[in-house]
Description:
By secondary structure, this protein is of the alpha+beta class. The protein has helices at 2-20, 47-53, 103-112, 161-166, 182-185, 231-240, 254-258, 299-308, 311-318, 348-357, 378-390, 403-410, 432-439, 462-473, 477-494; strands at 26-32, 61-63, 69-71, 74-81, 84-89, 129-134, 137-141, 193-199, 203-208, 220-227, 245-247, 263-278, 323-325, 365-371, 395-401, 420-425, 498-510, 513-514, 529-530. A hairpin with a 2-residue loop joins strand 6 and strand 7. 48% of the residues are buried.
Amino acid sequence: MRSRLTSLIATAVAILAFVATPASSQTLRYANQGTLKSLDPYTFKETTTIAHHAHVYEGLVARDKDLKIVPALAESWETLEPTHWRFHLRKGVKFHNGDPFTADDVLFSAERVRANGSNFLSNVPADAKFSKVDDYTVDVKLDAPNPILTSQWDTWFIMDKKWAEENNSVAPTPVSATTPSYAALHENGTGPFTIESHQPGVKTVFKVNPNWWGKPEHNLKEIVFTTIASDATRVAALLSGEVDVIEPVPVQDIARIDASQNAQVLKGPELRTIFLGMDQKRDELLYSNVKGKNPFKDERVREAFYKAIDIELIKNRVMRGLSTPSALMIAPQLYALSKDFTRPKYDPDAAKKLLTEAGYPDGFEVTLDCPNDRYVNDAAICQAVVGMLARIGVKVDLLAQPKAQFFAKVLKPGGYQTSFYMLGWTPSSMDSQNVMHDIMGCRDDPKDAGRGEANLGDYCNKEFDAITDKVLLETETAKRDQLIKQGYEIAIKDYGYIPLHQQALAWGVSKKVKLVQRADNMVLLYWANKSE
Length: 532
């Protein structure tokens, strides 16, 4: 009798345990062509990496599903004067290890994000001076008004001062680091998920943070992220149900996935602009057969390269129609006057003539650095560029590498080791000033360490920079748009860059999953819901 009673009790306990566990609590499996290496939130300013970090770390502000700035670790803020901001911090928030979140962590993070090795120098202005009013109030004073101060703070994540100091992680981990720091291998944020395990470049398992201060908008218990570099393998994993979400979907596989019974492709316009840049700083290129001078310092050579690119061929053949050719270094959705600009026409004869006038009638040789697992068809685009430039006599040696090696080589921590490169950029502020400052601004500004941080070739025009500074301060939209237009006109006349296109968003998603797709291409699974 006792054994039967014990059995009944055990059965009842099991039933109650089953009932008490939400039936909707799910595991979501996500695969991307790229890797997640460092967990240090200041190492690598790249959309996919930032999106991963956003599950475990948070900023003072965030962006909602429509990309609008909303409160996060700061409940509210105000401008006491045009150069004096005050932030009121959220109380009762704890880091994943139980440490309380306070103003000390904000002041620490403000210093760390602007320290050597950080890839986020421009997110927090160099002139911003942070001070603690009390444990939950922070003042920020500026040398000049900055109406868009918080526009990049959604990706400036706050770190635990005490944890960083205890684990020898006060300094940021550079993207070029060969030995990972403690902060690169572990996390301690305040976000809705924690990281249970992390195999850099292979697999990362996220678990729900039961002590998160916010109200969850997902029904997940864990996220399992795996790198699947092969397009064919990634698509097969989605169609077989092995994974629930993949990004990106190769353009050639979109129709096949949409025709399947258990998956579909979420499509939409993206805000990222893909472009080519050229080293215009060094007196001799690192990777070229031209010795003693730099061909890219001649505007005619830059114009020749631009006019040799058949952007419509790239759109129709390589991108299969899923791209929008661009005349500017910013997506048209982010700049009202973009319609006033048109791309120079594809003209290989004119390009050849320009090279001859510049003293290169037989062309020259140069290496093109390109990622092969970062953007949609990135290596294929670069291969197409190789063929197009060959028509005007330029021999391009293509070095296409996984993004970890590519970025470690070409970014600031790696010494900008490139002569000719492909890059993609989504302005984190959703505004032209970010593009003009970070991508197109002169490097090595003694008053502004963040200017030109992502200007790998150091296109530099001081008149352009002066306009950028005016854009930052101007609050009247019409005047501001005209200033931006003047800046872009200068850069276009200089042929400082070769904008290519905005790629289209294409995420493969199981029909069991409901997901929010933002135009910045951040896969944010804290808005995902998965059915049985």
